[in-house]
Amino acid sequence: MKKALEQKLGLVDMLEIKCPYCGDRSQNEFSYGGDATVKRPELNSEVNDLEWDSFVYYRDNPRGKHLELWHHISGCRQWFKVHRNTATHEIIQTLEMQEDL
Amino acid sequence: MAWRDPEPKKEYDAVIIGGGGHGLATAYYLAKNYGIKNVAILEKGWIGGGNIGRNTTILRSNYLHDANNLFYDHGMQMWKDLSQELNYNVMYSPRGILNLAHSDAQMNAYSRRGNSMRLNGIDASLIGREEVKKMIPFADFTENARFPIFGGLLQPIGGTARHDAVAWGYARAADDLGVDIIQHCEVNGFDIDDGKVSGVQTSRGNIKTKKVGLCVAGSTSILAEKLNMTLPIEAHVLQACVSEPVKPMLDGVVTFGAGHFYCSQSDKGEMVMGGDLDGYNSYAQRGNLPTIQHVLTEGVALFPNLSRLKVLRTWGGIMDMSMDGSPIIDRTHIDGVYLNCGWCYGGFKATPVSGLTFAHTIATNEPHKLSLPFKLDRFHTGHLLDEKGLGTKTWIS
Lengths: 101, 397
Description:
By secondary structure, chain A is an alpha+beta fold.
């Protein structure tokens, strides 16, 4: 309870991320993979420059809830999704790659 | 007071959003160079409370690409006279910046960078291990050093300035020219008619204007959303820290080349240190300890005697990380809305030249020749300015 409150208020020394496969682990074991909502244009379809550039360079960059990719690089080496608040660093939920919010 | 605390007027010729270094400088040059004096700076908090008060005060123009060299070195020339220009001591100190190299390959890369600087008229010298040893004898020159020092690239006129004084100096000078500095005034929306801006909605009422300049660094995407714009920018937290003060030991700025760590000593004696981003999207203006530990581990690898110092304080600021690592100074698709953002973690040194070129863009509705390479459409035309070749993983840099 106290830990959850501290995390919500951002009063933590480090992030504790719940890997869907390994459970709660220290942030030291993970690397970041960026915005998980970015969708690559469909293969074998007409893609104009604007769509492609948006996919490569443009980000919503929200202040608040952000769905993002993380990699348990010093653990099970699985990629997964983290739903996290960029204003408080609170981690709301973690999901496997095929799962959606 | 060094500047007035005016009530917002109903209308201004130009409104600058963001009372940080770049916003204050932009307003100053609008008034001084372009005669546009009916200008308001709208600041959500207090002036100088963002990244201008949170950086590690380093000045440099040691780039590889011509566009960066020419732009930042114009800024370096402006720093020389800034105290006289503003009649405010910004404590400009060209104490030299030394980028250390830890391999032959890195010496070659620095040689190329130094040559690029010299071709652009910027003094730079490649120095060997023995010369470095004379400059920083307390660095790890032992046989056991994990990353032995091979030499370094020195920019003699690189250095530091007093960051807060830069904000205060520009604020007072802009105020003297008639600019209204309006603090505790948050912009909540924009009035756009037929693709033209006609005003801004603020927490202190609506203000009419035909020109709006955004200088809000880490908050750029938040305001852009109110303009229905998405940008090639991510917000990331960058931390810095200072040690307890010690007697003078380091007279210049030194960067560690085998990782990301840089260090200088403040006039109070504190070792001022910084390095990597925390590495995940953040608007929190605070980071956490793993990154500090990582950065200081590099620091101790370079300067073993740092291990005996206590960290006095750490803090964080929000960087507007652009997708190619270079800034954006440009018009937008909305008439009268101008964009100044994407400074990554290199914004402080650019304060004067950013203000100058952005004021030019706002006043003339045309890019300044120095900021021409920093146009927003480069992400569509492919003319990226990726100094480090890192690509779009902004958090890696």
